[in-house]
């Protein structure tokens, strides 16, 4: 069980309450967190950069603000930031050799809003290179381990932020989700992984992978913390032309106790039997728990969702090939000199990008090239529209959709030897990304995978119509409070550190 009185166990909501009340200072919270990070991160590998000095300075600043009478919604909350988000004067690597020594000249809007709300940045976290992957194994700069079983991956691409929050090395982690990169690591690490509606949180200062899909969101140990983070970050930003100019309904005020009056759709085409008997049973139990909380379970159909993976793996690489063309040895990061400029580009990009990134650039460039553009890119865009329409139809007969968050629990390192089996991890999350919908993963049970010794967490994905974040978080809160699946096991790396 979670040890409620241990400072590193506290939720962001509790930390902010105590710091605002003056019963603990932000500096004390941050010293405790840094000491814990220094004790465990060599084993977990969540952080690429630990910001000891910046964290202490920020914490002192939060304490001064609180002393002067300000009340901050996230006062003194230790924050882990995925290393594809800019933070002024800090190394921002994207997990890539090409940006290994690049220092960000400005701060991403989402990060700035979290700092303004009182958060203290503890460090920048590992990720699959340029957010391409589902395990963090594609990082060029380090290995991140799952705090619940160090022989397993934390998920990806936001695996460093997930591992940091699971290992109590931060209370909130920021991730980015293009096709599942917050929800899948959230599921693997026993966390809430929440991707809001596309455009709801500014992408300014998030280094682009696939601009029509990328969305920032929080990884937290409680739904309430996810709601607080969302309330701090959501809203229009004139610096991001795709950010949506529409008032934000606060989510932290909408947390529910039950699911009475809600129709929850189960997707006919999402057959969980193929996930194995234990996992299948766990999801059946999760759906029964939703019903026991008062929800009406209804069957819905997403007939084109099965095309999601193929659609995504044309659109995302196409956008990636365009976005990553800026890393040319001239403007940012690594440069490998040569006799002429063409050779310099080639050498820089050959040395700077890893194999998954190169694969995506090649696929994307091919899909966009003349003669193939209509056959691949345009058809994928049409399929994307059909998938979004399927969701619209489904939401005519339900308020939320429930399904798995990932195709398996966290797997062992090197278990996915071909790209396709790795891509399959996001089978259940990609359709929502293509449709721009808000979705989250909430802990829903434990299984011990074949060949494993530790029980590993499973995530239930809940998905809502566009802009229905308060409803989504409200329902997830009712489920979390009633079931308390998350607190059944503590990561060994945390209990071991105390022993
Ligand atoms: N795993 C998917 C990919 O590799 C999704 C990544 C993401 O959401 N950033 O593209």
Compose a concise summary of this entry.
Helices cover 38% and strands 13% of the residues. It is of the alpha/beta class and 499 residues long. The protein has one domain (7-264, 396-495): Amidase signature (AS) domain (Amidase signature (AS) enzymes), CATH 3.90.1300.10.
Provide the CATH topology.
Amidase signature (AS) enzymes
Q: How would a textbook summarize the main sheet?
A: 11 strands, mixed
CATH class: Alpha Beta
Oligomer: single chain
Small molecules bound:
glutamine
How large a portion of the residues is in β-strands, by DSSP E?
A: 5-15%
- Principal-axis shape equals globular
Please identify, by name, the CATH architecture. Answer: Alpha-Beta Complex
C-alpha-based Rg, rounded: 21 Å
* Series of secondary-structure elements, N-terminal to C-terminal: HHEHEHEHEHEEHEHEHHHHEHHEEHH
Q: Kindly report how far apart the N and C termini lie.
A: 15 Å
Percent of residues in helices comes to: 25-40%
| Strand segment count | 11
CATH superfamily: Amidase signature (AS) domain
* Widest beta sheet: strand line-up: 1-3-2-4-6-5-10-11-9-7-8
Q: What average pLDDT do the residues reach?
A: 96
Tell me what the structure shows:
It is built from 16 helices and eleven strands. Helices cover about 40% and strands about 15% of the residues. It has an eleven-stranded mixed sheet, sandwiched between helices. The relative contact order is 0.14. Helix 2 (about 25-45) runs antiparallel to helix 3 (about 50-65). The chain has helices spanning about 10-20, 25-45, 50-65, 110-115, 160-165, 185-190, 225-235, 275-290, 310-325, 340-350, 355-370, 375-395, 420-425, 430-435, 470-485, 490-499, and strands at about 45-50, 80, 120-125, 170-175, 190-195, 215-220, 265, 295-300, 400-405, 440-445, 455-465. By secondary structure, the protein is an alpha/beta fold. Strand 2 (about 80), helix 4 and strand 3 form a beta-alpha-beta unit. It starts with 11 loop residues before the first helix and ends with a helix. It has one domain (about 5-265, about 395-495): Amidase signature (AS) enzymes (Alpha-Beta Complex).
């Amino acid at each position: 069980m979670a040890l409620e009185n241990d400072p590193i166990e506290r939720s962001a909501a509790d930390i902010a309450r105590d710091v605002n009340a003056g019963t603990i200072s932000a500096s004390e919270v941050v010293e405790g967190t840094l000491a814990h990070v220094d004790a465990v991160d060599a084993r977990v590998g969540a952080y690429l950069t630990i910001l000891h000095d910046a964290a202490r300075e920020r914490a002192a600043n939060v304490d001064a603000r609180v002393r002067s009478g300000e009340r901050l919604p996230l006062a003194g909350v230790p924050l882990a930031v995925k290393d594809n988000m800019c933070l002024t004067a800090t190394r921002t690597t994207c997990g890539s050799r090409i940006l290994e020594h690049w220092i960000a000249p400005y701060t991403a809007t989402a990060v700035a809003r979290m700092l303004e709300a009182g958060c203290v940045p503890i460090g920048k976290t590992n990720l699959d290179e340029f957010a391409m992957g589902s395990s963090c194994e594609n990082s060029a700069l380090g290995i991140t381990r799952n705090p619940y079983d160090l022989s397993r991956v934390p998920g990806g691409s936001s695996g460093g932020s997930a591992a940091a929050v699971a290992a109590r090395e931060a209370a909130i982690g920021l991730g980015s989700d293009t096709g599942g990169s917050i929800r899948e690591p959230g599921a693997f690490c026993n966390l809430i992984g929440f991707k809001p509606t596309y455009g709801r949180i500014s992408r300014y200062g998030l280094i682009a992978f696939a601009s029509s899909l990328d969305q920032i969101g929080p990884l937290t140990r409680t739904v309430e913390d996810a709601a607080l983070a969302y309330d701090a970050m959501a809203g229009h930003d004139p610096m991001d032309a795709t950010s949506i100019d529409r008032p934000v309904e606060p989510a932290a005020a909408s947390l529910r106790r039950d699911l009475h009056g809600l129709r929850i759709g189960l997707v006919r085409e999402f057959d969980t039997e193929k996930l194995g008997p234990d996992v299948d049973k766990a999801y059946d139990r999760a759906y029964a728990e939703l019903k026991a909380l008062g929800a009406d379970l209804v069957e819905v159909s997403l007939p084109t969702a099965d095309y999601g993976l193929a659609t995504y793996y044309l659109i995302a690489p196409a956008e990636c090939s365009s976005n990553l063309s800026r890393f040319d040895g001239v403007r940012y990061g690594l440069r490998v000199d040569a006799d002429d400029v063409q050779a310099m580009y080639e050498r820089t990009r050959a040395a700077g990008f890893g194999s998954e990134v190169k694969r995506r650039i090649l696929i994307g460039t091919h899909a966009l090239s003349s003669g193939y553009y209509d056959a691949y890119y345009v058809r994928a865009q049409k399929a994307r529209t059909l998938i979004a329409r399927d969701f619209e139809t489904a939401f005519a007969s339900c308020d939320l959709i429930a399904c798995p968050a990932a195709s398996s629990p966290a797997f062992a390192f090197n278990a996915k030897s071909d790209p396709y089996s790795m891509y399959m991890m996001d089978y259940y999350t990609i359709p929502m990304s293509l449709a721009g919908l808000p979705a989250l993963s909430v802990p829903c049970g434990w299984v011990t995978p074949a060949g494993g010794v530790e029980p590993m967490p499973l995530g239930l994905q809940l998905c809502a119509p566009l802009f229905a974040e308060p409803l989504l978080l409200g329902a997830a809160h009712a489920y979390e409070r009633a079931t308390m699946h998350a607190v059944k096991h503590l990561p060994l790396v945390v209990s071991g550190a105390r022993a």
